[in-house]
Amino acid sequence: MSETTAPVTPLATDASTTQVASAESVSARGRRAWIALRALQVVLALFYGFASALPKLIAHPSAVESFDKMGWGNPGMYTIGLLELAGAVALLIPVLQSVAAMALSALMVGAFVVQVAVFDGQYAATPLILIVPLTLIAWARRGHNADLLRLVRRRA
After folding, report:
1. How far apart are CA 35 and CA 150, in angstroms?
2. CA angle, 98 as apex, 135 and 101 as ends, to 5°?
3. Three-class DSSP category at 55
4. How far apart are CA 82 and CA 88, in angstroms?
């Protein structure tokens, strides 16, 4: 028998190795989840910034027509456009991302009500669908709310 031959123990029976392997897989899984959530935030920010806010802010005819039908006119259109743009930008700022997701969710509740009341529910599912990832972001990034509160208290 050679001196270099050592008994081999399977990983499953070695508790410390199993814990290290488990910690690495949790860490890798957490990292992938963080990246996926961040990608979702970027996609939503792009959607709210370009597909939703921009047509309102440049007074695209379809947006003008919709807001005229609601009776809100240009002031309502520009206000909603600015709120959506602010939410889109805030989704990308770590200390604001949870609050931004909650605010955009509230805006989507209003959009749902308007879709049902004014437009006979034609696109009512869209705001409801958008609330799902926004709620996920608000919950997953809720730890940043304490950071935001500390910043606000320090400035006051």
Report:
1. 26
2. 50
3. helix
4. 10
The two structure tokens encoding residue 90: 């805030």
Residue-level pLDDT at 137: 98
DSSP 11: G
Q: At what angle do helices 144-155 and 97-117 cross, to 10 degrees?
A: 100
- pLDDT number for residue 24: 59
Q: Evaluate whether 100 touches 134 at the Cβ level (below 8 Å).
A: no
Inter-residue long-range contacts of 8-11, CB under 8 Å, 24+ positions, other chains counted = none
Q: What is the pLDDT, as a whole number, of residue 2?
A: 46
Q: How far is CA 55 from the centre of its chain?
A: 21
Distance, CA of 138 to CA of 143 (rounded, Å): 9
Residue 151 in tokens:
């910043």
* Residue 26, pLDDT score: 73
Residue showing tokens 């809720």: 142
Give me the residues of the chain with pLDDT under 50, please: 1-14, 16-17
Dist CA 30 CA 40 (whole Å):
15
In this predicted model, what pLDDT tens digit does every residue of 75-109 receive, in sequence order? 999 999 999 999 999 999 999 999 999 999 999 99
| Greatest CA separation for the chain | 91
